[in-house]
Amino acid sequence: MKRDTSPVLVNIGFGNMVSSSRVIAIVTPNSAPMKRLRDEAKKRGKLVDATEGRRTRSIIVTDSDHVILSALQPETITQRFIGKEEEAQEAEE
Known about the structure:
This protein is of the alpha+beta class. About 35% of the residues lie in helices and about 30% in strands. The chain contains two helices and six strands, in the order E-E-E-H-E-E-E-H.
């Protein structure tokens, strides 16, 4: 059977999508290292703010060194990733 190699997009809030295959980590923004990560990404031009002006509740780190801010809880985004993976597995069967 031919495997579908199309990217799986996951909604990270307000209609913003991220490719699940590019995500390395989904973390909370409260710690000092995460604040430094956000600041450094902004300096390098690799920060994507997808919060629509809301409070940042999670930070998504990608394999391309981009840092994405989301207003959704990390648990919510994780559940969406799990749901998309399960859908992809069912489609393969």
